[in-house]
Specification:
With 410 residues, chain A is mainly alpha-helical. The first copy, chain A, has 23 helices and nine strands. At the B-C interface, strand 1, helix 3, helix 10, helix 15 and helix 23 of B face strand 1, helix 3, helix 10, helix 15 and helix 23 of C.
């Protein structure tokens, strides 16, 4: 058994298959992948990595299994899945995933491969565990998969607290100790025991508060979109997407600097000279064709906007996030002896869903000196009906660094 | 200037009139009044006092005034009001206020007197401040009174954070530094600047989460109701209500032990042998006559229930809290350049109001061995239409100490 | 099993005999005894109680027993001792202990009685535990007694962290999780495993920093000495010392107010009008006869000083603390395979001992307006050779409230 | 003015010249240089950067200047120096500094150049500040330079607290708020005001505890020495040392991977397959010629040891840290009205110096399978007289990951 000191959970004790997995290159790579990607442009102390998060998820999984009375190979499988749940992430976490998936296909297959091959596969098999079954747990399948990836998973419990700790934002504060103690299985489903409607709501609220303040802060979104576009360019120019997936943050960063077509973007990212918002519009005024466009169409649209605005293509970035979901709303809680979905029980769910929907924004970004031209071009090219809804920085007075750093608003 | 070390704000610097006021017996008494009254029965580390809270409120007021550019006598008046805002509280904070007010009349007059008389009045006048004007600020009147008592007051900002720190409950986490920096006056009204809808929502959510988990935890409510009834008995038997208001926690506790009619309740409180819930009913099934009853009527009802159940009158306690309010919903925020009330802006307000209303409960409490008899008697005597809504401990499986300590549920 | 939320250890799970003991009046009384007595005069947020501390000590004991592989009745006995270790404390913790012991004799006997009688004795016996054996553990006797009261006891691990949390002073920061994991038994002695010299030193240093800043802050000492003298007076005037021991803070406070001879002191304590230092002298210049005097002699000396100064006897308080000890210096650590005492291993021990000795002070306290007269009288009456060493407040410029609140110095 | 959210100081307000400097590429590069270099191999959450540390130092400098009453251009100069004090650091902070300095000469000149040139120089001059004077402050020269680099500098106050926060080690806990408030200038020297001997000691103790536990943890030292050797190899093979200095962590990492002679070391670092200790010896038994050897001699010795052991040269790393210094011992404190150096006042200084000296170790590191051969070769080649003092991992039972992660011991 080894003990790791963690800034969030204090001491994490690692034993069994997890201790073996920790030493594999696949898991060690997570030390070099930031948990929050470009969020550190907004919150400079948010430099924590997927590695410490994975340790935290493993720790909470162990405690949950203990509390649920699950032991033996079954527990080891879940613990392995918890520790490995993020090994499929490319550099900068979620930031370049789309680029990877576009060409490599289904995410689950990637992970299944990563778990079956090399030292990870070996270690799992040495401990009598089947990599394919572990991969299914990572994917959230089956009774115990819910613990790793589901409405009440320990992933969420770790990242909310950890991201709050490292950004300094006080909103991710849930009570993992209580949540874990109150987990139960009812008819094979993971639920919270009687008397925990509010515990369930706290998960929901933490996410609802962290989303606009941290995860979707506009400056982090701008940097992420710039990074995504540059990574696409690397792939267009010959980089193997599977190789991109195995990089760490350092390698992607250096590649971008060295490649001619992305060097300017790399320099901008290095010097924090981020693009500004040319359009920042509520999704209500955005045509469905744009909202639902796939990666190919979006890139074509980017180029068309650049063309119309008369600027180089890499000076326009289009950012169309998927519709906000709220997985936590399907959390199940026992109320008066029967299992209920949180959205059937709590009036907060609909309210938070509405609030999330209102914060859903399309962004078009460009260098400060061409936001006007690019904005106008985008409105026409994309057929935006944003009349009063066009929210450019110049109109909302959001410029200035206060906003860049921590404003929660649009 | 003197510096006080505080567990929440670290160093609090006290100067000017506040330094003088700190040394008065009136303010020193607050050292001996617990901030959360009977909540420490549920959260044993919640023993913080009105004194440290008052220092915290003073500290935040100073910073807010600074940030708003208010100085001089005007600022001193607000700082004095912030430090003094709780001097009118009787022992056990809010727990016995009703008893006091029932006979002494309007709360504001009490405070105005307390501020005008003795060393407090002298100190205020020595610094050129009019006690009556300070009292009006305590009451939330006028432009600057909003800072002391209003939707965006510093009182709330301190207690949410402080109560979370001392209970260990992670839900009171707002960001006072940000809130204070974003305060503005628009047309004489205290508002949050552009881009702070979510900051305003965070205040609301913190309260919404702390309410059932901490402030209205049922065990704290039981103890509070027992204490209230016993204090009423003291007054009935000759104690001057004004004297009750000037007591500290210690004196009330000892008086209850020494007085024959309240000795048994005092012993129960000392040994944490709290009454149990005989009825715990949603307010929807409670007749309006009961909901809106004044103190006299409630005591009569208590006695009638005891009578019908065949138990001694001090073995039945009726607990009818006022309808949940949500003052924070009227918070004003600047959105796109105009001032809006939060409840017009955020879908969360209505949802939280609905949630609060659902948690609103009538309680009838009795010793464990007579909850059945008292429960049945109360249903009839009070005309409760609670059919399925009657939630006794025996039916919800809420007994046990887990619940006593931290359950958020009914 | 029940779960208690604690501001220091988060969730404390209580089961077995401990759950039974928690509900006894003897343990519940600890809710009403402040952990740090008069220290809250200096650090206003230090209002935590013996109750939450006892829960914390129980929690750490459970974890230590787990880590040491001790289970069954043996473990239950230690857990009971951990939870009960402070039940012998009178009101205001250590502050009035001397008064009690002076007349009731040996402390251990008191505790043995408290553990054998009433609900505590019953509960212990119900769980098959012998109260006398538990009392011996409380006393630090035997192999497992070291865990409860010894150089490496869990008592110390809890209070250092808890007192730091509640005062806001950042110096009590040890790492209980690591210390507990590294505990071992070698030849029946509790030691720290290989590689923990520094862990042992951290305990020592935390105490060395907390002592002058918190535990022996002069303002806390003044208040404590005033309280001690007043309690003595109560006993002189007929209060049964055994009764004093069973009081809570509230009762002592009210008794002092109600008794004519102590009413003035009670009022001073209520209003924080503490005596000032008339003499504050290094112990080197204090005759041995004074240093080693017993309670009776000290009180005679107090009266003689008052007499000589021409003030009423209750206006002079003499404060002669015992020589500083450093129990942690005898901590045993495994170094290169053999057990060594920390003072044989670490050069810090002697240095800290010297530092502690230098901070050792005799205090004579009096109302502000008679410090000069009382100081001069004390120098003569006690035969102090303090020439340059006489450190009165007027000479060190220590007046003012900054010092009162948090100065660590003399 | 802009506001940055920091995980340690909460809100940091940046204005004036500092706001301009923040946006320069030179300062932005610090976002990509880890504060603790290879310490994250031991404490996985220690990923904070020089950037957030620099903001923290700026923040504390501002508060100190405020408290000292320094304003205007003088204050701006100090604030600029505080923000810029680390821009001269190469990648992995202190880890490869030696490599850089060996060939580029005096560190101060580097910094003076960095401050005079490019956007930094421009920004300073735009605000009417002379880069050369700012560089002298960074160097600790002059009355105000002491605030930036000296015994009582704000650099130290930030990193002790920040490193504790991010490692999770509870030992760096000083009280920056108090220290800053107590700073004074006496005869042009920065001192702590009367009553602060213990505040000064707390700085010393925090460093003394953090050193072995964090800064000099052996696993961090092994990785650092491997990195240093590999960087030397890059320079030998043609990399411009000045270029090395301007790299960020990412670039150095990728360069090491891509260069054939360092690829194996890079892979080891990526996979955390660190060398093990072949020799770990107290410096007392190490010949002076080795202790005082310059970089060239050490590299020759490394090669000679490898030769003698029959392994490739990159498989032996020699680690000879400089003698432990204790700058904090020269801290000046006012005691009874006169300024004294802490080492003249506190017995702790000598004890800590002795303790530090005892922890001073020579390390020779090699892959696990050749520690025996390399150890024996090193003992002979270096003429080590380490008899009983030879502490190899196999003899102390220190293998295992517990030690790798957090043991404070040898």
């Amino acid at each position: 058994m080894l003990t790791v000191k963690d800034s969030v959970h204090d001491h994490v004790e690692v034993s069994g298959v997890a201790a073996g997995l920790l030493d594999t290159p696949t898991v060690q790579r997570l030390r070099r992948v930031r948990q929050l990607g470009t969020v550190s442009y907004v919150y400079p102390s948010a430099n924590h990595t997927r590695f410490e998060h994975s340790l935290g998820v493993y720790h909470l999984a162990s405690r949950a299994l203990d509390s649920l009375g699950v032991a033996g190979a079954r527990a080891e499988r879940v613990e392995a899945a918890a520790l490995l749940h993020d090994v499929g992430h490319g550099p900068y976490s979620h930031n370049v995933e789309d680029v990877i998936h576009r060409t490599t296909g289904h995410y689950h297959d990637d992970v299944a491969d990563l778990l079956a091959e090399g030292e990870v596969g070996e270690t799992l098999r040495d401990h009598g565990l089947d990599p394919a079954r572990v991969a299914r747990l990572v994917d959230g399948q089956g009774k115990y998969g819910q613990l790793v990836s589901g409405e009440l998973d320990v992933d969420r419990m770790d990242y909310l607290v950890r991201d709050a700790h490292h950004t300094g934002v006080p909103y991710g504060t849930i009570d993992p100790g209580r949540l874990i103690r109150e987990l139960r299985y009812v008819d094979g489903e993971l639920v919270l025991a009687e008397g925990n409607v509010q515990s369930a709501e706290s998960l929901l609220l933490a996410r609802a508060l962290m989303n606009p303040t941290v995860y979707s802060h506009h400056a982090a979104r701008v940097a992420k979109a710039m990074l995504r576009q540059a990574a696409e360019r690397l792939v267009d120019d010959g980089l193997d997407p599977a190789g991109l997936r195995r990089m760490d943050d350092a390698e992607l960063r250096v590649r971008l600097r060295e490649h001619e077509a992305t060097a300017e973007t790399a320099r901008r990212l290095d010097e924090r000279r981020l693009f500004k918002r040319a359009v920042w519009a509520e999704m209500d005024g955005v045509p469905e064709a744009v909202r639902d466009a796939d990666a190919g169409r979006l890139r074509a649209a980017e180029r068309a906007v650049a063309d119309r605005a008369g600027v180089a293509p890499e000076r326009v970035v289009l950012d169309v996030p998927p519709a906000p979901s709220m997985r936590e709303s399907r959390t199940r809680v026992v109320v008066n002896g029967e299992t209920r979905r949180l959205d059937r029980q709590s009036p907060l769910v609909d309210a938070l869903r509405a609030a999330g929907r209102e914060q859903w924004r399309l962004g078009v970004y460009a260098p400060a000196d061409s936001t006007d031209a690019v904005g106008a071009a985008a409105v026409r090219e994309l057929g935006l009906d944003i009349d009063g809804a066009l929210v450019r920085e110049t109109r909302t007075g959001l410029q200035g660094r206060l906003d860049d750093f921590e404003s929660a608003g649009p």
